[in-house]
Amino acid sequence: MVTEYTPVTINVTNENTELGISNTPHVILNLKKENSTVSVTHANNTAIDSTLSISNVTSSSPAAPPNTTKLLSLNVSTPASNISINFTMHYNCNVPSSKVSPYILNNGKWDKINNYTIDAAACTVTFHLNKDPVVALIENNSTSSSSTSPGSSSGAASGTGGVSSELSSTVVDLVAVVIVVAAVLIGLALVLGKKGKQQQTAGK
After folding, report:
1. Residues 139, 70: Cα–Cα separation, whole Å
2. Do 32 and 4 form a contact (C-beta atoms < 8 A)?
3. 60 Cβ neighbours under 8 A, 6+ residues apart
4. Where on the phi/psi map is residue 144: left (φ > 0), alpha (ψ -120 to 50), or beta?
5. How far, in Å, CA of 40 to CA of 35, rounded?
6. pLDDT per 10-residue tile (average), the chain, 204 residues
7. CA 115 remoteness from chain centre
8. What is the β-pairing status of strands 26-31 and 109-112?
9. Are 102 and 136 within 8 A, CB to CB?
10. Nearest Cα to 8, choosing from 54, 44, 40, 55?
């Protein structure tokens, strides 16, 4: 018989918190200051019965990669095994959603997490990991980046490219017209010059 457990929801108000978890395989942490949620689940639906620490390490974790800004960083730590962690992390809504991506800290280096979803309306990024990591939301400040995040739109970039192409085509057409007009004027000048010479010869 499988024991049914009710998920335990805990409101976390401190930036550094250690909790004792028991008698449940599923704990939901509502991080009030960060406006984010961390959900920890035991893979076998058995009680976790362990400690769980969560810290806001935005200012103390390693610096973000060049041309990026670290928006929020969390450190989740537990000695429990066979767990999965689901993160829903909030970012400032003034930051374009297309510029935000989640990262995980590996050996002192930030590596981008590829599988994630963005809720642009709620200004949140959601992703899943099978370990207790240090993670971060990082904003890409590069204006020349051609990559887009899931849920973001590349329509603006495509539109700009279309305008550039149209302008280039128009310039080419104008140059062609100028060349044709110049050729016609040169031809007329030659014809008129010939006629003038003929008239002078006839007058003599």
Report:
1. 6
2. no
3. none
4. alpha
5. 17
6. 73 92 89 95 82 94 96 94 93 97 96 97 96 94 56 35 45 64 71 57 50
7. 12
8. unpaired
9. yes
10. 40
**Amino acid identity at 42:** H
Which residue in this structure is represented by tokens 């642009």? 120
Closest Cα partner for 42 from 23, 16, 19? 23
Domain 8-153 has CATH 3.40.1190.10: no
Residue type, 82: N
Question: Rounded CA gap, 40 and 48, in Å?
Answer: 9
Torsion (CA) 93, 94, 97, 101 in degrees, nearest 10: -90
| Tokens (6 digits) for 14 | 């401190």
Tokens of 33: 């200051």
CA angle 119, 122, 127 (to 5 degrees): 45
Separation in Å, CA 181 to CA 1, 130, 169: 92, 71, 19
pTM tops 0.90: no
Structure-token match 């976390």, residue found: 12
Sequence-distant (6+) residues with CB within 8 A of 133 are: 75, 76, 85, 104, 105
3-state secondary structure at position 99: helix
Q: In 3D, which of 89, 102, 94, 96 has the Cα closest to residue 35?
A: 89
Strand partners, 119: 124
